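not sure who needs this but someone in the group chat was asking about Alanine--tRNA ligase from Convivina intestini so here u go. i didnt clean anything up, its just raw.
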Amino acid sequence: MESRSSAEIRQMFLDFFASKGHLVVPSKSLVPEDDPTLLWINSGVATLKKYFDGSVVPPKNRITNAQKAIRTNDIENVGKTARHHTLFEMMGNFSIGDYFKAEVIPWAWELLTSPEWYGLDKSKLYVTVYPKDQETKQIWAEKTDLPDGHIYEVEDNFWDIGEGPSGPDSEIFYDRGEAFSDLPADDPEMYPGGENERYLEIWNIVFSQFNHLPGLTDNSQYPELPHKNIDTGMGLERLVSVFQNGRTNFDTDLFLPIIHATEKLTDNRHYDQSQDTEDNVSFKVIADHIRAVSFAISDGALPANEGRGYVIRRLLRRAVLHGQKLGIQENFLANLVPVVAEIMASYYPELGQNTAKIQKTIDNEETRFKRTLNAGLGMLAEVIAQAQTDHESQISGEDAFKLSDTYGFPLELTQEQASEAGLTVDVAGYQVALEAQRNRARAARSDDKSMGIQNAVLTDLAVDSTYVGWQQTEVDGAQVVAIIGQDEAGVDSLQKLAEADTEVLVVFDQTPFYAEMGGQVPDHGQILNQAGQLLGKVVNVQKGPKGQYIHTVAVVADFALEDTVNLRVDLQRHLNVSRNHTATHMLDQALRNIIGGDIHQAGSLVEPDYLRFDFTHEGPVDPATLTKIQDLINQKIAENLPVTWLETDIESAKEMGAVAVFGEKYGQKVRVVSIGDFNRELDGGTHVQSTAELGLFKITSESGIGAGVRRIEALTSLPAIAAFQAQADALTAAAKSLKVAQSLDLPSRVVELQNDLKASQQLVESLQAQVANLSAGEIFNQLQTIGNFTTIMAQVKVANSGALRQMADTWKEKQPSDILVLATTIDDKVNLLVAANQNANLAGLKAGDLIKTIAPLVGGGGGGRPDLAQAGGKNPAGIADAFSSAETFIKER
């Protein structure tokens, strides 16, 4: 077998299936498009689901790709096993209703064994099949020269992830030889398909031939799909380890350059390819995680506290901690990004193009984490100290999870620190808290099905539907060309009649209703007969698999296929949405004009009553800048700029300077929308005819939704006027309350009040100091001798903890005793203060040590310097015990 590079192996796979008539589809973004069921693209087929479930007709029925994917469900195993990764590449070939078993099996064998292609040793290849799928077994035996005895029947060989397409599969294994055996030869798991290291699964071919319908649990009852599919997956990392004879996936050209670059950053640590070591784990984790993070950031995801941003943050933090295990104390991960980009340059040139952005994001996040890490170490020290004070032998699972979730501490780090203090960690409790978080994350996601049940009606629908909404919002004489409802079994089917009090899908030969796209909500409206009677209400519009406009209609009165009807868009809703859509374009331009830099749209939502715009930017936009943005947009509204559009090809649009907007998909013909000379973008939504139609623009909020991503919400027209009026009313009410003649005089009046308040606060502080001095004079007379020290110990009544410090300052000035112990209760909370003079410190008595001893008795904690320490607590009833404990502590010194 000839050794091959990862780039050669990937390209050879694509070239092979291109020679078999497949369309080569480039790897898509890791961030799913229009799929709320996925956090990340997690498989080769994930980007093609819309073709398999029939919601979209593919450009070609034969497709092949090498798709990057991320999975983090077993992140703890990365680095500890030979093949666990967070980011991996899945190569696949797909048939959407085209070829099936008889074609794909011989092709797979040809690619794997032909000297013109991979040229693997046939005697080292094995396959598994589903026991009830004897057809597949027969094809392997008769249409390939797979050696006898190399087919195994395995009950698990049935691919089924719930409702939707499913079917048997056939897995292909490569025998790596006895040197890779990790089990005795007679072990029940030592066979292709068993849990062993010798027989490596390199390819899985799924025969998607059944429809898993709701309510069915036995796959023998699944009906046949109207269109059978092929879905295969070959892990690039695994196959490369075969060709390069890597002991693990990490011992290949996909990872070793990253590992070697990391070695140079350590204090003379080295990666050992011959055996497993603790350092090896850290090298592998860093190499894996920097790949995943680099690709994720390049595809537009950024570190955050939730969702996919949390995954990036967690991966970065794990990599940093493993770097520290290797002795790397400085920021280092950004240095590895160019190495990742170079490895992947042949197929992913965008990594090299985005290297500077990726490095900046990673470096900022690494710096941020190190600050958080120090805080986490402090919290961990407190947790350990509290456990020891309470004579506990274990750190709670809840505390361990908080350290992991808030500060990025992996469980093993908490266990390591706890072990040094003679404690264990409640791992079971940690897992309970972790599972609770996972459940919350699942609940927060859409409950849409992962892959829809294949809808042959929509997939095969052969009617045309033309959108005419660019010019008109009413159509007279539209023909009903399709009515789609559900039969008694809940299966979609074509109907001839739409009956009253039902909801159906309707297609018209022409429509003025805009379908939901690009962040713009769909039009609503009415369907009328020729006499003006209401037949139904359009409540949603979506594009079908073949591009038809599919209207969801709440039926009011019966109408039938081929009826001629009149369509009426809800004009007010349509105009409101169009105003907000135009305003979105103007906001995008204003941000780029005023802030500049790396401003890019990161999402949008255009509703009838407001708009939302997400964009990339580090840190909040200050109020003065927001005012400039708002003023610029209102200036352009006042200039009554014309809003025009034209259709052209993509290259001409780029030459015109049109901006491509986030999330849009562009074909050969594109629509360019221009707002005077102010803004020009590629866009498929509806707009006003001039900026004056917006009337007014008002920003209502600016906030962060993740690291490096900000969100602006805004209003136009009457809602904007109402918002300005509400502000004016609030100012008028404030002016009346403060007895100011005009609202414009409010700022100067507020300054006056602030000055008055400041003077009053100074007076209060002066009086409090006098009271504290008087109280101190009384307390300082309560001198007692405890052990070898003169001590003042008292519970006092003061307004705040600042007064307690004032008494300590007076004590320090007058030096009436060696030690001062004060307690006070404010709003049912305890404040403790301990001070010790130089004599006490020299004798070994430190205020910080004493406060740590007595603070738990009032339900709190604290610390400080040898001469002064403070603590807080929640248990006023424990003050007497705290004083008693303080007395014992002092006596023992």
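also The radius of gyration is 35 Å. if thats useful
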